[in-house]
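INFO  loader      accepted 1 record
INFO  loader      residues=132
INFO  predictor   begin
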Amino acid sequence: AVCEQMIRKGLRELDLPWKQFKLEKRPKRKKNAPGYNKVVIVTDMLAETVAVNPEYPYKWNGADGNRDIGPWACVGLTPEACCNSILEDVTDENAADPGVYIECQISVPVGGEGNSDPKRIIIKESTDGRVH
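INFO  predictor   done
INFO  writer      dumping tokens
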């Protein structure tokens, strides 16, 4: 609620009609949730190059046990080249979840190519109510 109030206040200060914007709350992803094996690759607005070096938020439970993977130096690469680099780096399956391998998920910022709802504001929220 505090975060929403701050966003609305900021929009008012910019003379933007806050009622025209959609606040979308999304839970922060969890280790055991579907898609836990995906590395998110954030692109530029045109979806042509990687804007941020991808990180994996959990330990990967592979052939050598739990280990840190990433981040990957992908800024400036195409999303496909970045994904290939990640897949070449992490080739083993999850030992606790046989048949599950690292995958890539391409994410274009709101307002970018194919994600063109510029009036959507996404709030990522932990189960304890913290906003990220």
